[in-house]
Amino acid sequence: MQRILITGAAGFLGSHLCDRFINEGYHVIGMDNLITGDIRNIEHLFHLKEFQFYHHDVTKFVHVPGKLDYILHFASPASPIDYLKIPIQTLKVGSLGTHNLLGLAKEKKARILIASTSEVYGDPLVHPQHEEYYGNVNTIGPRGVYDEAKRFQESITMAYHRFHGLETRIVRIFNTYGPRMRLNDGRVIPAFIGQALRGEDLTVFGDGTQTRSFCYITDQVEGIFRLLMSDYVEPINIGNPHEITIGEFAEEIIKLTGTTQKVIYKELPVDDPLQRKPDIRKAKEILGWEPKVDRSEGMRRTYEYFKSLPESELFKKEHKDFSTYTRM
Ligand code: UDP
Predict the structure, then answer these.
(1) Ligand 1: which residue has its CA nearest to atom 14?
(2) Angle, CA 301 vertex, CA 30 and CA 278 arms, to 5°
(3) How far, in Å, from the CA of 102 to the mean position of ligand 1?
(4) pLDDT band at 116 (very low <50, low <70, confident <90, very high)
(5) Residues catalogued as catalytic
(6) Which one of 28, 34, 161, 321 is separated from 183 by 20 to 30 angstroms, measured CA to CA?
């Protein structure tokens, strides 16, 4: 049986990856320090003998007994609000954590896939973003802790590949959504749905003309799976190129949820990228991958998930104060 270590296993992406690799017949070792992850996302796997969980912080030395065939490094805060709450941990997990996992991969002769991000392109001056674009990142802004950690992560991963001959893969993940997103992590989809469910107005930041392109979780997981199994070493974008402005998206959510609330406008966060859309030609050519779930279907499933959460979750506020989000 092949053994795979998944870091960030209790997170949104990590937990769906655990499910996928269990279904593919792997022995899955999940690891998470539960700072932003939620154990409930993987509770359903605990009775399986093919699943083990280590409550561990990957910025500390990582020890896993036995053989490992694959490592997926998905541990990291991934919401702009989290970068403000836990900036040092965000930097450490992308840098020190990645270093530890590359060392582990080398020791175990395992293939390692690193979760990178569209944030390496910063507030992009090239549209759509292709993999050869070097990006436009503010190193010292509030998002810099995430963006630079992820850029360093790509560099050290390529260095391990070139210097040690390690088998490495890098996925640049664009905005992804679906069940198990954290309701109160401040990201736009849980924010809008949560507001609609609580009967609050929808908060559009800025004038709402900024764009994003949202990829449904099952499509993202399929892209990551294909990349891991491929022999392609350089970074690949995985995301849905169907672009929408945040203002239009708020209107879509109003229709989907049937809320009678309206849109209100708030200050645009510092360094909020104006436009984002992946160029997925490489993923198509090299992995034969493209997204299959359109936004209406994906959002319907996501809304069903959020509706099914207990009311106490809905009113639990993780982030009351957004003021630092818009100030340096
Ligand atoms: N956004 C918004 N209202 C919210 C939360 C987010 O208008 O309540 C905007 C945010 O300014 C950004 C976009 O939605 O332009 C996506 O934000 P998110 O935090 O989901 O992810 P990002 O793509 O910025 O990392």
Answers:
(1) 188
(2) 75
(3) 32
(4) very high
(5) 146
(6) 28
How many other C-beta atoms lie within 10 A of the C-beta of residue 48?
12
DSSP 25-71: T-EEEEEE--SS--GGGTGGGTT-TTEEEEE--TTS-----S--SEE
pLDDT-derived band at 322, boundaries 50, 70, 90: very low
Q: What is the mean pLDDT of residues 172-186?
A: 96
Q: Which two tokens stand for residue 230?
A: 């491929």
**pLDDT value of position 288:** 98
Query: How many whole angstroms separate alpha carbon 300 and alpha carbon 9?
Result: 25
CA dist 65 and 110 (Å) reads 13
For the stretch 179-183, contacts whose Cβ atoms lie closer than 8 Å and that sit 24 or more positions apart, written own/partner, are 179/217, 179/301, 179/302, 179/305, 180/12, 180/15, 180/16, 180/38, 180/41, 180/217, 180/305, 181/12, 181/302, 182/12, 182/36, 182/38, 182/79, 182/318, 183/306, 183/309, 183/313, 183/314, 183/316
Spacing, Cα 187 to ligand 1 middle (Å): 5
The alpha carbon of 190 and the centre of ligand 1 are apart by a number of angstroms equal to 10
Q: Is 253 in the pocket of ligand 1 (CB under 6 A)?
A: no
The token pair at 88 is 């040092």
| pLDDT tens sequence across 206-255 | 999 999 999 999 999 999 999 999 999 999 999 999 999 999 999 999 99
pLDDT band of 320, cuts 50, 70, 90:
very low
Q: Is the CB of 142 within 6 Å of ligand 1? A: no
pLDDT digits (tens, 9 = 90+) for 282-310: 999 999 999 999 999 999 999 999 999 99
Name the pTM for this structure: 0.96
Beta strand ranges found along the chain (DSSP E):
3-7, 27-32, 51-55, 70-73, 111-117, 168-173, 176-177, 202-205, 211-213, 215-216, 236-238, 243-245, 263-266
Determine if ligand 1 sits within 6 Å of the CB of residue 113. no
